[in-house]
Amino acid sequence: MTALQSRAFSPGRFARTAYRVREGSGELSPFCRVALIGDRLVAALRLTPINVGDRSGALLLGPLAVDPDEAGRGYGRRLVAEFFDIARAEGIAVVVLVGDMAYYGRFGFAPVPPGQIRLPGPVDPARLLAAELQPGALAGFRGLVARAA
Ligand SMILES: CC(C)(COP(=O)(O)OP(=O)(O)OC[C@H]1O[C@@H](n2cnc3c(N)ncnc32)[C@H](O)[C@@H]1OP(=O)(O)O)[C@@H](O)C(=O)NCCC(=O)NCCS
């Protein structure tokens, strides 16, 4: 999965703030999804359970990595849609990510109101996005993001 992420992202990816939340969590959560063609990994979506302030029930989405040779063929969309169905069934309330509104807006993500949710490092506020899986849930999630134990 790491090789795929290296192909999909620039080498600077380890410096990104979202990685600070995930670092040290070698384990994949039950929400993670992959797409295979035969035995070739072509897309991978990672989800990390997080607390926001003192609230659990949220996930940090990312990275979503699609093999550049397979980009634009719906793998990203399908992995996110599958994950949303599972997360909803599991009672997840909110999904947070750092990414492009131009891509993630189609899944119901929108910018987090300024200052409501903080990551342990600098983030462009326009790229800090959240999706509610339960209507109105985002209002209850305030404060610093930390990986859930
Ligand atoms: C971004 C990425 C995850 C999309 O996955 P994918 O499987 O190629 O995308 P899908 O086939 O599901 O969706 C394709 C649609 O997304 C759009 N799209 C792809 N990347 C986009 C981006 N960075 N911004 C806006 N739209 C984007 C395409 O134009 C296409 O739009 P259409 O449905 O209107 O034709 C993938 O290309 C990737 O890993 N890129 C490298 C990492 C990256 O740039 N991530 C940025 C997101 S944080």
Textual characterization of the structure:
- This protein has 149 residues and is of the alpha+beta class.
- The chain has one domain: Gcn5-related N-acetyltransferase (GNAT) (Aminopeptidase, 3-Layer(aba) Sandwich).
- Helix content is 21%, strand content 33%.
- It contains 4 helices and 8 strands.
- The radius of gyration is 15 Å and the shape is globular.
Q: Give the N-to-C terminal Cα separation.
A: 23 Å
Poorly predicted residue ranges: none
How many individual β-strands?
8
What can be said about the biggest beta sheet? Answer: 8 strands, mixed
Q: How many structural domains can be distinguished in the coordinates?
A: 1
Q: Please give the count of helices.
A: 4
Q: Summarize the amount of helix as a percent range.
A: 10-25%
Question: Key features?
Answer:
4 helices; Aminopeptidase; alpha+beta; binds coenzyme A; 149 residues; 33% strand; globular; 8-stranded mixed beta sheet
Per-chain topology:
Layout: H1 2-8, H2 17-22, E1 33-37, E2 40-52, E3 55-66, H3 75-89, E4 94-98, H4 101-104, E5 110-111, E6 117-118, E7 128-132, E8 143-147
Parallel strand pairs: 3-4, 6-8
Antiparallel strand pairs: 1-2, 2-3, 2-8, 4-7, 5-7
Coenzyme A is lined by residues 8-9, 64-66, 71-77, 99-100, 102-103.
